Amino acid sequence: MGYLSPMTSSQQHPAAGAPSLTGQEPLFIVLNTGSGRGDAQVLQDTIRRILDEAGRRYTLMPVDDPSRLIDISQAAVKRARDEQGAVIAAGGDGTLNAVASTVLGKGVPFGILPQGTFNYFGRSYGISQDTEVALRGFLQGHLRPVQVGQLNGRLFLVNASLGLYPTLLEDREAYKQRFGRSRLVALWSGIVTLLRAPRQLRLQLEYEGKARDLRSPTLVVGNNKLQLEHIGIESQELDRNRLVAMAARPVGTLALYGLLLRGLFSRLGDAEHVINFAFDRLTVHIRGRSRVKVAMDGEISWMNTPLEFKVADERLPLVVPADSQYLDRS
């Protein structure tokens, strides 16, 4: 079987601390058949066609049972390490997060074929939601070590949150299951969620050597320039190995509607009821709560407190298209 020619750009500009690319790596593709926008069989057929045409060795590793996603991801990483290969994740945000978590720190190149609704992570690095475009971009791509966040040791690519935001995500998913995936459905579900008066959390925030008390219905920590810029929050601090926290001051339901609309029109950063700040490590104590519901890249789980947000010590060796004009230029 033939191979593509070596990836000249990555050889001339190797990514510090990341594996190099030759263009001959066997590919181990973790594909979540239950996530994403389209037909899983069409997705697999597209992947096979492109890689067969390119003469690349590859193994498709479909995930039919979500409970097996981590096990299959770990198997893919092991094979990639043993055979000097690369791992590719195909699926929505939760799939990308799970596979990235197993790749981080293992010295294995990582690629993505995004199938989610918003694709903030992929779009930030010029990776298309169109599977054929994204895969061809991977084949001609180069390595870019990218920053990821961690919450109590667990990785997040785009954001992590607690309070109202996880509830919004849960309700949005329920509405999508019932009415289909669209931004209008997402907006309507958010409006309905806010009708239920959100509970205020009593938070103690420790960062930059100081402590701060805050009452808020939600706290969101962002690691994605595109998402932050879309809601009107400054994102330059991400270039300085920091994360950005956002919280709403205690407000009534009407004011929360106003914040939702400001976010839609990229003006959240100007809202008087919103605070935001950058940090490299943040510890969050929640008065009266030993466990709290959190959302990480859209996946909901329970976590013990206190919560510690930080920039991961290692960067993720992401393969990006050679001609991408991604936002992260750090």
What is the topology?
Layout (H helix, E strand, L loop, with lengths): L7 H5 L14 E6 L7 H15 L3 E6 L5 H14 L3 E6 L1 H11 L6 E5 L5 H5 L6 H9 L2 E5 L2 E3 L2 E3 L2 E5 H16 L3 H13 L5 E7 L2 E7 L1 E5 L2 H6 L12 E6 L4 H12 L9 E6 L1 E6 L4 E6 L2 E6 L2 E5 L4 E5 L10
Parallel strand pairs: 1-2, 1-3, 3-4
Antiparallel strand pairs: 5-18, 6-7, 6-17, 8-11, 8-15, 9-10, 9-14, 11-12, 12-13, 14-17, 15-16
Provide a compact summary of the structure.
The chain has helices at residues 8-12, 40-54, 69-82, 93-103, 120-124, 131-139, 164-179, 183-195, 225-230, 253-264, and strands spanning 27-32, 58-63, 86-91, 110-114, 142-146, 149-151, 154-156, 159-163, 201-207, 210-216, 218-222, 243-248, 274-279, 281-286, 291-296, 299-304, 307-311, 316-320.
Task: Write up what this structure looks like.
GO terms for molecular function: kinase activity. This protein has helices at 8-12, 40-54, 69-82, 93-103, 120-124, 131-139, 164-179, 183-195, 225-230, 253-264, and strands spanning 27-32, 58-63, 86-91, 110-114, 142-146, 149-151, 154-156, 159-163, 201-207, 210-216, 218-222, 243-248, 274-279, 281-286, 291-296, 299-304, 307-311, 316-320. With 330 residues, it is α+β, with helices and mostly antiparallel strands. The protein folds into two domains: 27-146, Probable inorganic polyphosphate/atp-NAD kinase, domain 1 (Rossmann fold, 3-Layer(aba) Sandwich), CATH 3.40.50.10330; 154-161 and 200-311, Tumour Suppressor Smad4 (Sandwich), CATH 2.60.200.40. The strands form four sheets. A six-stranded antiparallel sheet has the order 7-6-17-14-9-10. Strands 13-12-11-8-15-16 form a six-stranded antiparallel sheet, sandwiched between helices. Strand 6 and strand 7 form a beta hairpin. Helix 7 packs across helix 8 and helix 8 (183-195) runs antiparallel to helix 10 (253-264). The radius of gyration is 20 Å and the shape is globular. The two termini are 38 Å apart.
